[in-house]
Fold each of these.
Amino acid sequence: MKKLFLTICLLFAVVIGTAQNSDSNIALGTYIPYEMAEVPAAARQILETKLGQMVTKNGISDISYNSRFIITPNVSVMSKDVIGSAPPKIVLNLDITLYIGDGVNGTLYTSKSFNVKGVGSNETKAYIAAIKNMRTNGEDVQMFVTEGKQKIIDFFNNNCELIQKEANTLANQNRFEEALGLLVNVPVNSTCYDKVGKSLKTMYQKTIDRDCQLKLAEATAIWNANQDLDAANEAGAILASIEPSSSCYPNVKSLFSKIESRVKTLSDRPWEYKLKVLDANIAIAKGAQQVLMAYAKNQPSTVMYNIHGWY
């Protein structure tokens, strides 16, 4: 069977942030396809921002990194006119159709079209003016996004067992962050959410334990090689990123104390690094998201979306 998820599918529901007034952890990436090369770069950026606003205003997390589920546009120029003023103005009449769907298997969930007009002193400014006129809220927009949201929930409900199996397979390959990414993004209002709760806790602990061992070894090697201020700062930055609930954290605190003591003898300034403090009030899901966000920053964006046939 075709692999269920991308390597790091749905990893970053928190890279951009949690949706305003969100009732779930559903994530929807904004994707501007290469086929829109005729739209000026500045206008494409405005369009991406507008899509993000549309998503977050209607209760979904707006992400742009490796999301399986995407909202993507197609822009068609219906007319282009030049107004003979001084200086002349360009008037663009655009049809912008938005699509929500599964960008991995190419399943289109829903679509909506907007007709917008813009006037500018050049074509780029006319594109920008038109795109800015596209609404990001309203009953019809809310219905469009809600339909896409429900389809995403249905996906998890229908594939829960496969998601858990995929996570276990990744974990057996020591790919804990990827396994954790599958589980942490199961929507809280899906029937699958309660089923993955125990697995999520286990996967989170395995992830931070492995991360702790790797970072502690790296920091130790740096410090043992050269116990000066540069080495202290480099090792300190690594130690400060380790989760307090990881199994090797006592050893982290021990090494940190040694370095901190050495820094005091080398400098009369306070050391800028501090270890994380355990917060018992942080839920496993929130802690997992924080771990994945840190992991995300070092990963390339490699998603190749399948949107053929959507328009």
Amino acid sequence: MKILKYIFLLLILSFISFSVFIATQKGTFKVEKSKLIKTTRANAFGYVNDFQNWEDFMVFIDGEKSVQSRFSKKSISQNAQYSWIGTENSGWVETNSFQENSRIDQKMNIEGSEFYITWVFKDTLGGTKVTLKSEGEMSFSYKIYNALNGGAGKIIGNLFEKSLVNLDKNLDYEINTYKINIKGVVQKKGTPYLKQTFTCKINTVLKNSKIVFPKLIAFCDQNQIERNGKPFIIYHTYDTKNGLAKISLCVPIKQAIMTSDGSDILADELAPFKAIKTTLYGDYSHIKEALKKTNAYINQKIITIDSDFSHLEVFSIGKSESKYPSQWKTEIYFPIRSKKTSPKVEVKTEDTNPIESEINPTTI
């Protein structure tokens, strides 16, 4: 019996000693890891800044088939939030602030331990240097876990390294897998639509579309206006020299309507027109190359462009249909007109009408 008492006392003393040891350990930590990501800075930033992509590369939740994810209404903007509950762990992360294509500051909580993480994106030879930094305070339970597994630097550092490797693999395939197909001359069908028109920098068009398209769709839902296909952009002007474009962000509707005076959402109608059609399969970041190849095709064929507007882009398959950029599809139409000196070109009939299928009311 005395031996059992001694063993029990020894266990109690060991537990107390271990608890004191853990309690006296430094609770703060700092970890920093970097990796070359083989894509542009804008692509890397855009992918990380959207919480919809986190399941695919962050190892806090990697491999958990039963994970339950929840996103805030906006998964990209400041104060965007993402939380998860899994068999291994649960937590949440919130974007506090960001600098476009440069830096993202976030706050994260995993199993009660809160800390800050910072993403830094810098151009470098061969792609983008992505640095992931973290600092914070560990809870008592997380101190125990760290003490038994080599410390915060090793544990969190390994998680960061694996996440950056996953990020590189995903971006290398998802962003850089694309195809451009120039179909030639087609007859584009018309449609009534709702729009917002303004002038902005060309490199902010996609960002603006993620704000305006949901607003137009919500307007349709609130006023019981039946939509008639995919959102599209009309480029009235496209000034590459100054980097500016006058655009209309549009949602097609079944029947023409009139909007009230003073409304920032206006109704209009797109007339049928003959166009050179190009399809971009893959991430929208390759749109400049698609436009460049289309212009080269037009010049080669000596086709006369109509001056009514620059071109039109239809988001046939976007983020609302697939979160994988390699599966996205953007259709581009350059309006043309016949000219006596121009060679005769064959008009092809489109197999499908990109503005006739229903859209899920979420961000593109």
